[in-house]
Every structure is written in structure tokens, then in C-alpha cells.
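Notes taken during the Thursday session

The instructor put the following on the board and asked us to keep it in front of us for the whole hour. The protein is Keratin. We were told not to look anything up and to reason only from what is written here. First, the residues (53 in total):
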Amino acid sequence: RQCPDSSAFIQPPPVVVTFPGPILSSFPQQAVVGSSGAPAFGGSLGLGGLYGA
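Then, after some discussion, the predicted C-alpha cells were revealed:
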């Protein structure tokens, strides 16, 4: 079950990189949290839902 987990964990980071401008402008704090990596998992998923990605 680690395989699917890895795929899900790898998906969030690309989403943040896809919208570097909008995220930095709209959510500067989220961008800083995303840099950590661990919190980015939850933060990116939340942002992805809002952006409709």
C-alpha cells in the first residue's frame, strides 16, 4: 500500500509548482508552509480543491 501513498504524496508538490504566481500572490503563507514539504501535503490538497485542479 506504500505505492499508492507515494503517488498521492508526489502529486501535491507539482500542483503548487503549477501555480507559483497565483499561490504566492493569493496565499503567501501557504507558499512558505509548502516549502517545508510535510505541511504542503494538506495545504496543497486544500488549495487544489479551491482552484478546481
